[in-house]
Amino acid sequence: MCGIFAAVNQNPVTQHLLTGLSCLSYRGYDSSGIAVIENGLIRRQRAAGKLENLRQLVEGNPIQGLIGIAHTRWATHGLPTEKNAHPHMTEEVAVAHNGIVENHHSLKLRLEAQGCEFQSETDSESIAQLITFHLRRGMSCQDALRVALQEIEGSYGLVVLFRQQPDQLYVARRGSPLVIGRSNDGYFVSSDENALSGLATQVYHLQDGELGRLSTSLFRLRDIQGNQKACRFVDFHQMHVDSGKDGFDHFMLKEIHEQPAVFERCLRQYLSEDQERLEYPIPGSILEKVSRLTIVACGTSFYAGQVAKYWIERVAGLPVDVDIASEFRYRQAPLDQQSLAVFVSQSGETADTYAALQHARKRGLTCLAIVNVVNSTIAREADYVLPIHAGTEVGVASTKAFIAQLTTFLGLTLALGRASAYLGAEAERALVAEMLNFPEQMSQLISQKSMYSAISRELRHCSNALFLGRGISSALAQEGALKLKEISYIHAEAYPAGELKHGPLALVDEHLPVIMIAPRDELLGKSLSNLREVAARGGRIILFSDKEGIEECRDFIVQGHALPPVHELLQPLQYTIPLQLLAYYTALIRGNDVDQPRNLAKSVTVE
Ligand code: AGP
């Protein structure tokens, strides 16, 4: 996703801008650029492709100044070319923009009719042209920006330079995060707090509708009507900043290996003194009133919610709806005020999930955020927050955050079961004891990773794959299919195994790999029957089950991996690991960029 970095400082900023963009690069991008004010002029360098291209360009044609803006672009409107890279500028104004200008077409027509000449195919350029238009009508810099923002429809996180004010950096926000960092020698601005690590001592998160003006020593805040606003900087507690790959080939593999420690950290954050139950910072009076849960998220976080649905309904006896965030508020679902609305987001900045949270808040629901980034927008706007303590996740394909989300959901399930008296103390104690032993079992499973390199050869030249599971494993199959899709680029679908004969069985032939998740549970027999349906049509079966399950199917599977027995409620966490490793090694064998797969971003801050 697009990234913004800006600086106004007593010292030259070009290197800060390039370093800031490097910190943002994990979010995914396809072009980048910087602009500074030097000798009274706005000077810009942009490059398509990787940041190294921009760095080389700047080295060859240096630009330097005490104020500057920078951007990594993830293309929404227009190809990923230098021409469409930010900053977008006129002689008077340069802007770097996150978000979408929904009325950019009408703005462009209006401005072109006034003689403005557009250079790019982007929506963002209309912001620079519109501000310039108001400047040329005699408005001050601040008023030109303010009026332009009132005319824009859509979302923005915005940093702006004015040639006329070479010592002032302007910032504005509507729906796309911007954080201001204060340091001893000036200010830094970023769309991602991580990029301020090592620079800022205090931070302020710009709120929607706010507009700020920064110099090296001053920060003035206003609302969009121009009224002055007070703001309070808080001490900056940077998240654990990723220390690199620590010898692993990819961040994704490193983060898969971190999962046992993440599980343990997430568990122990909420473990009671006597180590017999998990306690969460949500008042018992709230949990006891919950009659229904509505879980809302995107992507992998959505599948964590799907898994949680099975746990909560079984262990706490509460009905659970799980919604894709981008559909939730348009579905016009009748929302029960006794519902607990749960918003799951690793980044805490996903625009679709944030918009869904705002929708639920307007309807008076109690909102809980399950996030990894605790200073994120979604965390700040929820009534209650459960951090998942996964640490910075760099790989675009979510792994350890998914395990941490599941761990948090499992603990929440126990808390809900206790509150609804649906779960007995002894049963809770037994599960918590199993959870305390689980990190070791995860480590053992991950240590067998080389076998997935062999299994992935089955998928290397495939164009399609089918993931199957029953019950809670059908939810996990969805996550397995997404992992494979997003980094190997193989089209993968997931179905409840019982659904196969109602259509998807037509897909099965000797070319189709079928990955079945079949832990030892009440549905195992039925799952293995479904497998025989697949085998009868020549499907190439990869089976994840226990030892007996693998033995029973040995004659008609092409690959199988037996997983040791664990508490049934822990099976989804256990069976996640083979799915992650299968996707990882398949992407590797296909020569893909595992950590930054094509077209994807780590945090999708546009709808
Ligand atoms: C998962 O591997 C993907 N990176 C993607 O589906 C992600 O889970 C989704 O975009 C939601 O992100 P969030 O958890 O930060 O809200």
**CATH topology heading of the largest domain:** Glutamine Phosphoribosylpyrophosphate, subunit 1, domain 1
- CATH superfamily (homologous) name of the largest domain: Aminohydrolase, N-terminal nucleophile (Ntn) domain
- Helical content stands at 25-40%
Bound molecules: 2-deoxy-2-amino glucitol-6-phosphate
- Number of structural domains: 3
- Under the CATH scheme, the architecture of the largest domain is 4-Layer Sandwich
Strand content: 15-25%
**CA-CA gap between termini:** 11 Å
Sequence stretches where pLDDT stays below 50 over 5 or more residues: none
- Mean pLDDT across all amino acids: 93
Q: Helical stretch count?
A: 19
Radius of gyration: 26 Å
In total, how many beta strands? Answer: 25
How would you classify the helix and strand content by structural class? alpha/beta
- Give the overall shape, derived from the CA principal axes: globular
Widest β-sheet, arrangement of strands:
3-2-4-1-10-9-11-15
CATH class of the largest domain: Alpha Beta
Major sheet: 8 strands, antiparallel
Describe the overall structure.
With 607 residues, the protein is α/β, with parallel strands linked by helices. It has 3 domains: 3-235, Glutamine Phosphoribosylpyrophosphate, subunit 1, domain 1 (4-Layer Sandwich); 248-447, Glucose-6-phosphate isomerase like protein, domain 1 (Rossmann fold, 3-Layer(aba) Sandwich); 453-594, 3-Layer(aba) Sandwich (Rossmann fold). The chain is 36% helix and 22% strand. It has an 8-stranded antiparallel β-sheet, covered by helices on one side. Strands 5-6-7-8-12-13-14 form a 7-stranded antiparallel β-sheet, covered by helices on one side. A 5-stranded parallel β-sheet has the order 17-16-18-19-20, sandwiched between helices. Helix 9 (299-315) runs antiparallel to helix 16.
